[in-house]
Design brief:
Structural class: alpha+beta
Low-confidence stretches: 43-54, 320-363
Strand content: 15-25%
Number of helices: 12
Largest sheet: 7 strands, mixed
Order of helices and strands: EEEEEEEEEEHEEEEHEHHHHEHHHHHH
Helix content: 25-40%
Distance between the termini: 109 Å
CATH class of the largest domain: Alpha Beta
Number of strands: 16
Mean pLDDT: 78
Radius of gyration: 36 Å
Amino acid sequence: MGFFKAFSGALGGAFADQWRDFYTVPAGLSGTVGVCSAVRSGADAQRSSNTSGSDYVITNGSLILVPEGFALITMENGAVTGFVSDPGGYQWTSDNINARSYFADSGFVDAIVKQSWERFKYGGPPAAAQVALFVNLKEIPNNKFGTQSEIYFDDAYLNTQVGARAHGTYTLRIVDPILFLKGFVPVQYYAPGAFPFYFTDFNNAAANQLFSEVVGSLAGAFSAYVNASGKQHRITAIQSDSVGFAQSLSQAVEQAYHWRYDRGLQIVKATVMAIDYDEGTKALLAKVQQADALMGARGNANLQASFADGLRAAGENPDGGALGMGFMGMGMQAAGGAAGAMQQPNQAPGYSAVQPSPTDAASGEDPYERLAKLKNLLDQGVISQEEFDAAKAKVLDG
């Protein structure tokens, strides 16, 4: 009672003539299919060309082709009578005690599904007629998620609560076909001749429920991502880290809805296509970017460039000679102090290398001291030779 295996893998030429009439998956299935009824290949179609046959019930002696990436499940009165995940050709028989009902001798399926097989298998000898279904084992793409309003979560890196709207896509895999079929798929999808179960079908209430559960888990997923133990994930990195975010999303969904253990489903990858932060978060991220720009060697370069820009602007002002020298005097001290402060992170709290400059530095400073400071800026590369010569001329003319 069960299956005899005729060959492994795809239908080969040696079996072409005798396998002109067999059951397999329907032609033209979308990659987002979850479950579909087996259909009979046309007697004149040959090989793997399928037609939309109407006989979805296999009988004693029926030939069944299980393609790569699908699992075959046979059922009677809602209970599971057979399971095949090894690709190949099989013959169903109800009158041979040597036939097997379970073929999952390779890959991860055997260990994962065995418990569900024992839980849902048929309790007595199966009848001569069985409903035959195929379950998709491939990674299923194009599952969308999105929020209409902001979601809020605590961000350990920013040390505050942030808000954002986001949308994207994720892929999933049916890791336990028997549990998925028995624990989640509505019964109308595995009645004889039923319409295929598509995850992207808007008329599929079960698939829409999955969408709602993913959206309901986004706040937890974002929080899990940015607060991962031993890591400091920035929320701005989430769009380029599909694997890391998928782990956080899968974790959040599993904690809230138990996809893996109640439904046999698992999220594989997830990508945030767009994220729109609320105004408070945008302002905070702008400040973080400014702080990043003032750290380390890049910060010294940015600070020196800003002083040079100020000096250049003052030099171009006809009345800015004294003002420019005053700015330059204060700028040189500030630049040296800021660079010292950033290069000496181990100083005691309260220490500052920046020394206050007199407010009347510009008006009372000796011209030769100004020239010395200009030369110092030139030697440090803060100003160019042309800028030094122009400022020098103003000092000497003043």
